[in-house]
Amino acid sequence: MKITWCWRCKMDVPMLDEAEYAVIQGIYADCIGGVKQHRVAHNATLAQVPMTQKQFLPVLEAYQQMTGRRETNAEEVLHHRASIYGPPCRRCGKVLRTARASKCFECGLVVEAMS
Known about the structure:
This protein is mainly α. The chain contains three helices and two strands. The chain has a two-stranded antiparallel ribbon. Strand 1 and strand 2 (about 10-15) form a beta hairpin.
């Protein structure tokens, strides 16, 4: 885990390395499985399932245990994966949105895209 810029949250947050992310992804998949079981048991469409963050509380708890940071939305936690971002900008230090970014959207510096 390392602290770096999250474009979704617009602040520095703990980013998960691949091993940590694999744990979170597994917990998230289990939570999705619970939603699917509810749908089957109640013959419900996805729209009929009351989706709440409570269903994804195990994801939030695991993230907090790993990072010390409390989140309120499991979807946001999935974006806290270090490998999806590019390197830090040479000018402002914020990570680029992707490894193939051609511009830093924080300070506007045009960067050479990585292949």
